[in-house]
Automatic annotation (TrEMBL):
Residues 1-32 form the signal peptide. This is Apple domain-containing protein. SUPFAM superfamilies: Hairpin loop containing domain-like. Keywords: Signal. It comes from Porphyra umbilicalis (Purple laver).
Amino acid sequence: MAPSTRSYVWVVRLMVAVAVAAVAVLASPTSARQWKLASNGEVFYSDKCEFKGKDLSRSVTKDDDCGDLCIRTMRCTHFTWRNGFCYLKQGLVFLSNVKYDIFSVCGVRRRYL
């Protein structure tokens, strides 16, 4: 195998390992925040949290529809639903940026973890 091919294989293996670890942590009942799967397994969401900033758009929706709207919207990586509004977000997602908000629901598209 050429060095460039070996490097590529190593990067792919690392990316798969990180994705598997992220799913395991998010689905783990021992994690600090309880994440649940929705939208046919495409979205992780949690109650009482929000992502600040990085707004892409805002729409009037029910909380259950916010994740589906994010999936259908190009460039949407994560979202916050609060008081009847779905705030679609874009950009890098850091779970450390999740803030507590008793009135909100937040979520992340699975592919962007």
